[in-house]
Amino acid sequence: MVSSSFKAGFVSIVGKPNVGKSSLMNKLMGENLSIISAKAQTTRHRIMGILNGEDFQIVYSDTPGILEPKYSLHDAMMSYVKVSLEDADAILLVVSLEDTYEEELFERFKKLGTPILLVINKIDLAKGTQVNDKIAYWKNAISNIREIVTVSAKTGEQVDTLLPKLLSLMPEHPPFFPQDEYTDRTERFFASEIIREKIFLNYEQEIPYSTEVSINSFKEEPDIIRISAVIYVERNSQKGIVIGKAGSSLKKVGMEARKDMESFFAKKVFLETHVKVADNWRKEKFKLRQFGYLE
């Protein structure tokens, strides 16, 4: 039975691309739910991480980085950000140490009534008075910030200070999800995200941004999970790059993804991957709908 003083609410993790939102969510959850790479725009979907305690449930949303849309894919990504801000009980606005205020990206936060904790990330890279200087800078730039917290999502430094602050902002409410769940996403989704992470880590330039991963089949047997995945690219020339000489690049991605899947699913995995062309999929709404970016 849920106690009458149980707290439950939604926390949206937002900010520009590549400021460490996914790393922060993974540290807050103690699970690698969001894929991470040094490249910007790695996160494309809104991913919920459900943190359950004895008398609380916090539903974190890791969102795509805020940007000016260039494709229909970007429009879909920004709609996830908009929805996550609308249903949030608290907002973690993440900036990195070198970030500065940009009117077109940060103006929207000045109009929100939802409590905002500004999180200055990457303090492990700070020199001299840089952290204190940045605290003063952001206090001046966005006046309705509830509090400024400094962390390193990479090392975990001071990340644990966020939970009590967020709990104080959560309403009394029964849990929104069963208390043994830790995400709203399916196993198929995580399988595709693990492959996509390896693509971001193994390829350069436009290739990671031009690829999408679809799981054709996910069959769980007593001792093994058999997964068949298709990596889609936008042009025929990209197909050869993804496959590599005698299939070497694709084989490397497959091996690395399989290893992480076995760790994530705690089971032996058989993974087969194929590469296909879906012309200009980032700009075509039909294909974005097919890949789950649009309703």
Protein architecture, described:
The chain has helices at residues 21-29, 72-86, 103-110, 130-141, 162-167, 187-202, 207-210, 236-243, 248-265, 285-290; strands at 7-15, 47-52, 56-62, 90-96, 116-121, 147-150, 212-220, 224-233, 268-277. It is of the alpha/beta class. The chain has two domains: 7-167, Rossmann fold; 187-290, GMP Synthetase, Chain A, domain 3 (2-Layer Sandwich). The strands form two sheets. It has a six-stranded mixed β-sheet, sandwiched between helices. Strand 4, helix 3 (103-110) and strand 5 (116-121) form a beta-alpha-beta unit. The longest helix has 18 residues, at 248-265. The protein is globular, with a radius of gyration of 20 Å. Mean pLDDT is 84; it is low at 35-41.
Features:
295 residues; alpha/beta; GMP Synthetase, Chain A, domain 3; 2 domains; six-stranded mixed sheet; membrane
Structurally, the number of domains stands at 2
Structural class: alpha/beta
β-strand number: 9
CATH class of the largest domain: Alpha Beta
Q: What is the N-to-C order of secondary-structure elements (H for helix, E for strand)?
A: EHEEHEHEHEHHHEEHHEH
Q: What is the spatial order of strands in the main beta sheet? A: 2-3-1-4-5-6
**Name given to the CATH architecture of the largest domain:** 3-Layer(aba) Sandwich
CATH superfamily of the largest domain: P-loop containing nucleotide triphosphate hydrolases
The biggest beta sheet is recorded as: 6 strands, mixed
Region (G4): 121-124
Organism: Ohtaekwangia koreensis
Protein name: GTPase Era
Keywords: Cell membrane, Cytoplasm, GTP-binding, Membrane, Nucleotide-binding, Ribosome biogenesis, RNA-binding, rRNA-binding
